Amino acid sequence: QIASYAGAIMMLQYRSHLFTILICGRFARFIRWDRTGAIVSRRFDYTKRPDLVFDFYKRFSQLSPSQRGNDTNVSPIPDDDDDAIAA
């Protein structure tokens, strides 16, 4: 089910990859998804190692949009674009 959620996000947003945190009970895993699959970290007890989650968010906040997974090759079509109007 988690893979289907990641697939839906990748399909509905212009993304090259996606980061998620999976939490099951007191354990967590970091997952990086792309169109070919996922890379999953070892599980860790986030109640004993909350610094790992904090460090992830700290580093994630410092990434550029493309490093966060946004496809920067995609841009909105201007409202006055003749080809878009004709379509």
From TrEMBL:
<dbReference type="Pfam" id="PF17667">
    <property type="entry name" value="Pkinase_fungal"/>
</dbReference>
<protein>
    <recommendedName>
        <fullName>Fungal-type protein kinase domain-containing protein</fullName>
    </recommendedName>
</protein>
<feature type="compositionally biased region" description="Acidic residues">
    <location>
        <begin position="78"/>
        <end position="87"/>
    </location>
</feature>
<feature type="compositionally biased region" description="Polar residues">
    <location>
        <begin position="64"/>
        <end position="75"/>
    </location>
</feature>
<dbReference type="InterPro" id="IPR040976">
    <property type="entry name" value="Pkinase_fungal"/>
</dbReference>
<feature type="region of interest" description="Disordered">
    <location>
        <begin position="64"/>
        <end position="87"/>
    </location>
</feature>
<feature type="domain" description="Fungal-type protein kinase">
    <location>
        <begin position="1"/>
        <end position="78"/>
    </location>
</feature>
